[in-house]
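BUG: 3D viewer hangs when loading the predicted structure for this chain

Environment: internal workstation, default settings.
Expected: structure renders.
Actual: progress bar stalls at 90%.

Input used:
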Amino acid sequence: MSLTSFLRNKDVKARFRQEFKKPKFLAKKDLLAPPLTKRYSLVGTAFDYLLRFYLQHLNPDALARRWVAENSISHPLSPLLTNVVLNADTKKISFTETEQTKKVQRIIKQAKEVHSNYLSSGEMTDVVIETTLLLAQLDPIYRAGFVDPNIGTVHNEDVADLRNLVSIVNPEMFRARELCLLNPTFGEGSKLVGGADVDLVIDDTIIDIKTTKKLEFQRKYFDQLIGYYVLHEIAGVGKLRPKPEIANVAIYFSRHEYLYVLELGEIIDKQTFPDFVRWFKDRAIARKTAS
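Structure tokens produced before the viewer hung:
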């Protein structure tokens, strides 16, 4: 269960459509970085990592959450692990090591070294890009219980694709005045829907990254953005207190170098929104209880 799966429920989709009118999307932008392979999901996840690396160098005070890839060998339910024992006091796990788990541990260890060196130098080498592809191979282990049989293999075309994507990033779009959160969750709000983490929060804007060749604002994208904001209203983002003020939600269409920003004040009805938040919370609790 996750925010994405929660939003697929028919009654949830219907209530979102009743409450929020999706704005017309009239943007016309050139495809500046067309995909070079059909490994769309892998490259998309790798770019999420790569852009967060880039933004952490751009915004030294950024707050970065632990990588999702690390959960591939630290979560008790990981399909990589056998003979798992959870220490109730330390919350740490032990497991029987295999060649596969050793490989994953090496990838994560080396990735931390590469990441640290990049933050110091700011040099976008092929090694940095390859590292994000390796980390991207690990995410589905935690998110979907899927183990990529090609873990550790990097294709030159994917490296070239990612270099094209990062080369067109406009740093002024992402330079934070005060706040930069990288891949934060919504605390108890995320637990409420079985998992939810957003790519970025820059100052007062929640940002989702879409690495797609189609420049279109789908209804599911809109609902996802609203869902993030609702979770923020319920529990806040990034464990920050007081909760940061969020005024906008946005999508960065990475292949078009286009940041589409929506002002929440133009989307949300202040009179009905509190009732919607209460309904959302009750509906999520009911689904969680039934599962």
